[in-house]
Recover the amino acids of this structure.
């Protein structure tokens, strides 16, 4: 990111996932936590990551479909969704962007734009 590009602007909008925050890192952490709650599901974290990679990041039925394919109950899918949404990451925004972002904060209004759920995005 080159700061000079923003010279003529009073405000700057950023997308959160994949720009300021590594959302794949969030998924890895959340899926690992889900796997801890479902110890009978071997390699659950890897399976969820692969399923999301194949289907795309905006697929809202990931847990429902995983549970249906594996013969798990709807309650299991609900529990997986809850664990995912309650997960609190221990990571910071992409380090390479932080210094530049702080420079922008000194002289401009910054806005974050996201299409994710408020609860999940706020934790990031």
């Amino acid at each position: 990111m080159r700061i000079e590009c923003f010279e003529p602007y009073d405000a700057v909008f950023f997308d959160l996932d994949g720009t300021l925050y590594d959302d794949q890192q969030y998924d890895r952490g959340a899926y690992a936590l889900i796997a801890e709650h479902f110890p009978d599901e071997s390699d659950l974290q890897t399976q969820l990551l692969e399923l999301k990679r194949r289907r795309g990041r905006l697929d809202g039925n990931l847990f429902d479909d995983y549970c249906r394919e594996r013969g798990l109950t709807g309650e299991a899918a609900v529990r997986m969704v809850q664990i995912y949404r309650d997960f609190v990451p221990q990571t910071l925004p992409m380090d390479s962007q932080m210094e530049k972002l702080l420079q922008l904060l000194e002289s401009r209004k910054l806005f974050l734009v996201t299409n994710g759920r408020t609860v999940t995005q706020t934790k990031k």
Summary: Helices lie at 23-37, 44-55, 62-70, 74-86, 95-105, 118-123. The chain has two domains: 1-22+92-124, 23-90. The two ends are 21 Å apart (CA to CA). The beta strands are 11-15, 109-113.
